[in-house]
């Protein structure tokens, strides 16, 4: 039986996700009536929970066989390196041989909202270039990335085609940007309905949230980004050097 202040199907799905993670691949899930009785939920609630795990790649339904355990096919490292360079998602993944896809959802100049203004040391409402992109790996949606740049520093970024390539490499090439240091914060969020549609998960699914602010050698902020990642196909790696090594 599951008790939670969250919607019941989310509590069931999270318990099932942990349970499935401990089961061998191709193991069959117990039949629906048994699971409904075990979790004390209706068939509709159970199916909604299982649907989320199917969408996330943890389970597979097969006619005549039932529902069985699968393993998500794609895992990658979302990495920012402090040792050699500040390397964004596109550069890191391309170097590993992955096929990276990018769909630009929004690209415009907007007044800086308070959190973004604080990260970029701007006045609230000062114009920034806002860039929102859906990123995929080998054809599977991976995360939604939101980036903000002071439009006074990077005016041409509002019109640049970012459907391919790296934002960081563009800033280095076009503006000789000194991307020297990055501050990264990782927390957890949940997918809203729009994100759920883009990432092919159920609304309310947990997401990894990676917030990055890149500074130049003098400590001035240049770019603030936050990415909302599917945790079933992502992991976050930090590389840190000590004593210049």
TrEMBL record:
Family annotation (Pfam families): GntR (PF00392), UTRA (PF07702)
SMART domains: HTH_GNTR, UTRA
SUPFAM superfamilies listed in its UniProt record: Chorismate lyase-like, Winged helix' DNA-binding domain
HTH gntR-type domain residues: 6-72
Keywords of this entry: DNA-binding, Transcription, Transcription regulation
PANTHER family referenced in this protein's UniProt entry, alphabetically: MANNOSYL-D-GLYCERATE TRANSPORT/METABOLISM SYSTEM REPRESSOR MNGR-RELATED, MANNOSYL-D-GLYCERATE TRANSPORT_METABOLISM SYSTEM REPRESSOR MNGR-RELATED
Keyword rRNA processing among record annotations: no
Xref: InterPro entries: Bact_HTH_transcr_reg, Chorismate_lyase_/UTRA_dom_sf, Tscrpt_reg_HTH_GntR, UTRA, WH-like_DNA-bd_sf, WH_DNA-bd_sf
Gene3D superfamilies according to UniProt: Chorismate lyase-like (3.40.1410.10), Winged helix-like DNA-binding domain superfamily/Winged helix DNA-binding domain (1.10.10.10)
Native organism: Blastococcus jejuensis
Protein name: GntR family transcriptional regulator
